[in-house]
Write a structure and sequence with these properties.
The protein is an alpha+beta fold. The chain contains two helices and three strands.
Length: 61
């Protein structure tokens, strides 16, 4: 995150995870990401289209 915000000057970082992947959701939330949406049938994984939860982290002021 330091590289994204400080060195690259990005305003936000976005991440997605499969809806039922509780471990990934917890990691994202623990480091400050906030869920902002859901993308239905976003990626085809193991032959099935998977819904993905969308998270973002906005650059702190």
């Amino acid at each position: 995150m330091r590289i994204a915000f400080d060195e690259l000057g990005l305003h936000r970082i976005q991440a997605e995870c499969i809806e039922h992947n509780l471990g990934s959701r917890r990691v994202l939330e623990r480091v400050g990401f906030q869920q902002f949406g859901m993308a239905p049938k976003y990626l085809k994984i193991a032959g099935e289209w998977q819904d993905m939860l969308m998270f973002q982290l906005i650059r702190p002021d």
